[in-house]
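At this stage, I wrote out one protein's amino acid sequence and its backbone structure tokens, and that material follows here:
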Amino acid sequence: MSLKSVLEKLKLEPYVLALFGMVVLASVLPVRGAAAHDLNIVVKLAIALLFFLHGAKLSRENVVAGVTHWRLHLLILAFTFVLFPVLGLVISKLGVLPPTLAAGIVFLCCLPSTVQSSIAFTSIARGNVAAAVVAASASNLFGIFITPVLVGLLMHTTGAASGGWNSVRDIVVQLLLPFVVGQLARPWVSGWLARHKGLIGYVDRGSILLVVYSAFSEAVVGGIWHKISPLQLLILLAVNGALLAVVLIATTFGARALGFSPEDERAITFCGSKKSLATGVPMAGILFPGPTAGVLVLPLMIFHQIQLMACSVIAQHYAKQARSDAAEA
């Protein structure tokens, strides 16, 4: 059996393996000293480029097409920035995880939704794609302001979060400003971006790999693997799985209880149950000191893989159901 077929059966993307490969590389060859300082500068530039591309890729036509569906968007934002943080806070108080990993769960729950995968899974499931584009994009835009506030409110007792308005300012400068510049530059660069989608994808994913390597290098130098045991990692895996299951149930049945159409239900399920690795990793580097950031993104990386696997199965089920309904009609 080929490696590709094994990955397909396990629903593991090469990119996900590359992410964990960066963790292994940082564990074996962490960057130190002056090289770490230089890498930090490169990482900041890569993050700025990443969010410039996000701004330049976001179509205003898609925004206009879905922006009027305010009930759907409010519900997704409620799941993302209310239900998730409440669940994260409850988990952190259970005592099943060490304080650093519990703080990582809380940080994960404060993050906005994904963009690309939320839209992709909604499309596969034959859901309301226009609404998914708006909801996922709005979640990320609002998250630039909401996430630091939630982190400050929910994580102040852990000592992990760095200070207040300085963090908001750094996020505005490093994330929002490049995003806005990208939106303004869209009339001139959108054609070039459309012709070079493959290159943009490499820049997008390469930036995140670089950030993960930098964060984990600092965590390894700070002694992360002396603080976390294999048993704690297994417990973290179970906690992430349970968290996703609860939110998937809440989004699905919540949408049905409020009378949304099947197409809207699918958009709500996929946009309301996800957390963004692309936004979370850069934010962790801004909000937390280096060694702490490496530990705090570990729950997010595991959750990211679980959500891809679970939502892939759910999207296929929705697609099959949509084909069946169409055939009956």
Observations:
- Residues 157-164 have pLDDT under 50 and may be disordered.
